[in-house]
Amino acid sequence: MDNKEIEAKIEAILFAAGEPVRASRIAQVLGVETDDIFKCAKKLSDEYSFDRRGIRLAQMGDSLQLCSAPEYAQDIVHALEKRKPPKLSQSALEVLAICAYFQPVTRAYVDQVRGVDSSYTMGILLERGLIETCGKLDVTGRPSIFRTTELFLRTMGITDINELPKLPDMSSDEGIAQLSSVIESLKSEDSRQMTIDG
Questions:
Q1: What is the pLDDT of residues 3-26, one digit of tens each?
Q2: Edge to edge, what strands does the sheet with 105-106 contain?
Q3: In which domain, by residue range, is 189 found?
Q4: I need a labelling partner for 116 at 20 to 30 A (CA). Which of 6, 22, 81, 138 fits?
Q5: Which residue, 74, 106, 128, sits at the end of a domain?
């Protein structure tokens, strides 16, 4: 089987699936190596981008998915008459950041970092598919442990959790100042956005 045929079959499988499919599963079905699937997927992805097509091939960890090109999001929303999902609250963003950077985590750990009860907020993130349970901690009470999902990676526009920006070293005054500066710039960006939207 030549690469063109592999590409066509990957495209057909991902189109029909409508959700992420593990590259290893596609390789098994097609009788080729997983590396060949990734190479062909990369070539397809590059072609979609170069030709300015309406679809993209996204890689999230070891899974692949066809999705719409982000630059056409507004057109899709208008065409399908779908309302934008509500933005995440500040508390939801805090919980999501803790889960992303320190995963896997328990709810108690998230509560400890934030200093408040996070059960409602974690429920919202679970409902939206941005975090998921990934087992139980082997201690008394066996609390659930949580991690981010492939939808989180896709939403963030990254293929692997290691692509998140590095946290500053909080053991030094310089690291704390750096984090404070980033937070302040995000706050001012939010207020500018509110002014533009308002």
A1: 899 999 999 999 999 889 999 999
A2: 105-106, 144-148, 131-136
A3: 168-198
A4: 138
A5: 74
